[in-house]
Amino acid sequence: MKGNIALKNVLIVVDNLVMGGVTKVLVDFLKEVNFTKYKVDLCILHYYKDMSVEIPKEVKIIEGTDFFCVVDERFSDLKKNGKLLKIIKKILFAIYIKTGIISFKIKQQRRVMFKRDYDVEIAFNDGFSQIFTANGDTKKKIAWLHSDLRVKNYSANYYNILKKSILKFDLGLGVSNEVCESYREVYSMKNLTTIENFVDYKSIIEKSNEKLDFNFDENTFNMISVGRLDYPKNYDRLIRVHKKLIDNNYKVKTYIVGEGNEREKLQNLIRELGVDETFFLLGRKDNPYKYVKRADLFVLSSRYEGLPTVITEAMILKVPCISTKVAGVQRQLQELYGLVVENSEDALYNGISQLLQGNNGLLKKYKQNLENYEFNNNEALKKIDQVFGDEIKNED
Question: Dmax of the chain from CA atoms?
């Protein structure tokens, strides 16, 4: 309470809190919440005790029951690790979703997990958290949407129950126009509006000034990317592009900050192509910004994205970007702060070589424009207040 104004009770639901793009957006959003207006609970369906994510102390964390312990697990990973009990649980979980029994199970588990009612409930992940929220009795349901489903829909196998769930939401908050359009097309969702990703820009700038554990080669053009080492990020493509640049006598070094299930595959490709002295996998870093700040170019090689926050982070640090054409990136770069190329290996190579040649002055132009670039979360915060205060209007 503050004065005579009652706090609005808000519940946010996520499958897990493993660090990645969506988790980072959530954490940055929570840092901006006005806790004199909103009382926020965070429900983590599959809670890991070793999660290295800082949540504001004002946020109460609610752990999911053991029923949800396989919500984010992949069959392939469980099989690979020989986790028989979890494999059985995952099979049952999939059957519950396919048959619709999951609706009853969710309602049953919610009675155990929640001790009070909420004014607003936000499903913060695409996929299961939307099914979970749809089967609750919170008056206002909001889906925070991150994926362009026309490019990749990880929940396509559960289309029917997801469509039924999506249509129970009062509003969809899409991180880009492309994401909103995909939910209109795939699930016939009607009430949609866009919202920029929240970014903790002050922390990014502060952390970027920390000292490096190694020095970038000042006589080389240094390129960097930040992301999980997995299929969507397409880093095998970036390795091959790097190899082609080396073969064509460009003096470049490339660094990737991040960890993931494709590390071994990527490391083998680096060795196979003989670029292990110029292409480096730095692993997961608590502070990637000090590396990004000192690079000459930020590279996004992804197959698909909802809205790549890493591009905004690079811009905040005044680093020019090149990106494959994914959702939201053209609106981010605006032909002012970086180059967007077609989503292919040849296009990425041609774009980087074009910037390296410097004949058209593009790189210089991007650097000059970035000197005047400023970021803040004001518009996104204004929209959140409208959403929670029932003032939001559909942007159809």
Answer: 70
